[in-house]
Amino acid sequence: MTVRGFTSQPEKVESLPIISESAVVTDVVALDRDRRTEIRERLRTLASRHGFEGEIPRDGEIDWSAVFTAATAKQRRLAPVIGALRDRYLREHPALVKVVFESEQPFDFAAGQYLSVRYGGRTRAYSIASSPTADATELCIRRVPDGRLSVRLCDELEPGDRLAIRGPSGDLLLEDPSDRDLVFLATGTGVAPMKSMIDYTFATGRDTFAGQKRDVWLFLGAAWKDDLPYHDQFTAMADEHDHFHYVPCLSREAWLSRWHGETDYVQDVLMKHVDERALEDAVFGYHMAEMMEDRPERDEPIGIDPHAVEVYACGLNAMVFGMETAVTRLGVPSHRIHAEGYG
Ligand SMILES: Cc1cc2nc3c(=O)[nH]c(=O)nc-3n(C[C@H](O)[C@H](O)[C@H](O)COP(=O)(O)OP(=O)(O)OC[C@H]3O[C@@H](n4cnc5c(N)ncnc54)[C@H](O)[C@@H]3O)c2cc1C
């Protein structure tokens, strides 16, 4: 199947039906942290281990180009680490915000849909992160560097501000209840529609069918731990429900802090959790076969059966395409794969 891509172009999102010209922002919360002090400490540790201490001042500006040159002269494999720490250090904060708003009239939407949001003369699409059963409507917005709207939403928005809201729209929707298990794959703010669907699934009892629990899996990818939207909530849900499996996958965190969790792409990590009895017909390349070798030991035989799941994927187009290709190769029928790309 083809990734269902939407355009953020104003002509599309501005043509949606108006919900509110003046929805009131009630809460804005930064989900990520300013980690510059932590990064400097980490650099100092690396520097003393590899002998480039002279390049890292205790405070004040860091000359990243000098650090890079000194570090890689000592140890070439430090190049990606220093590059990642530099990018994170220089990143504006906040880069990930939760925005809650109230409209004058309640409005209906389905879990997984998006709204068009107009603020300061710009309109963009944002997925609804809250369940239709929740009292407040919530969005989760990532700063796109130099982005015309997301930067303003991250930097300026505060309670009491007004947004024009249109919609809802979008076809990334849950299938009718069935005995199939649910697999959600997302990167970054692609988790917003997934959170809406997961909250809705548990709030309405769709996590069971005919008295049987359905396994609900969430594979969520990001670079850094504090870039995982709703990490604490999903962790708490996994503690509460033995059939909710939350698998965070962090590509860079281990370079900064103790991270012993997954570091690969979400679709690669998914492989490790597939029930191997269901894989006779799967089409594997070398890379996927390698992933299959690295499967966690389990006390009980739980695992994803590709023939008995529905899969929902969301994130940037290229990432969603990778996720979709991987689950198709595993044998998930294309009509059970629902994907949305953010552009
Ligand atoms: C259906 C749908 C749902 C969406 N839901 C969310 C959501 O829940 N949370 C969220 O944060 N965003 C979401 N987006 C993306 C959002 O609509 C905007 O595209 C994004 O906020 C950037 O807008 P901007 O005005 O800041 O950047 P612009 O000024 O429009 O773009 C600046 C530059 O960044 C590039 N760019 C645009 N979007 C992205 C992106 N997402 N990542 C990387 N580069 C980009 C552009 O190509 C351009 O070069 C969604 C998009 C769609 C289509």
Topology overview:
Layout: E1 4-5, H1 10-13, E2 18-30, H2 36-50, H3 64-74, H4 79-90, E3 96-102, E4 114-119, E5 122-127, E6 137-142, H5 150-155, E7 162-169, E8 181-187, H6 191-203, E9 208-209, E10 212-213, E11 216-222, H7 231-240, E12 244-250, H8 266-272, H9 286-293, E13 309-315, H10 317-330, E14 337-341
Parallel strand pairs: 1-14, 8-11, 8-13, 11-12, 13-14
Antiparallel strand pairs: 2-3, 2-7, 3-6, 4-5, 4-7, 9-10
Helix pairs in contact: 2-4, 3-4, 8-9, 8-10
Flavin-adenine dinucleotide binds at residues 6, 8, 114, 122, 124-127, 140-142, 144, 146-151, 170, 189, 192, 316, 342-343.
Description:
The structure is a single chain. The protein has 343 residues and is an alpha/beta fold. Among the domains are: 36-90, no CATH class; 181-341, Nucleotide-binding domain of ferredoxin-NADP reductase (FNR) module (Rossmann fold). Helix content is 29%, strand content 25%. The protein is built from ten helices and 14 strands. The protein has helices at residues 10-13, 36-50, 64-74, 79-90, 150-155, 191-203, 231-240, 266-272, 286-293, 317-330, and strands at residues 4-5, 18-30, 96-102, 114-119, 122-127, 137-142, 162-169, 181-187, 208-209, 212-213, 216-222, 244-250, 309-315, 337-341. Helix 7 links the parallel strand 11 and strand 12 (244-250). Helix 2 (36-50) runs antiparallel to helix 4 and helix 8 (266-272) packs across helix 9. The protein is globular. Flavin-adenine dinucleotide binds next to strand 5, strand 6 and helix 5.
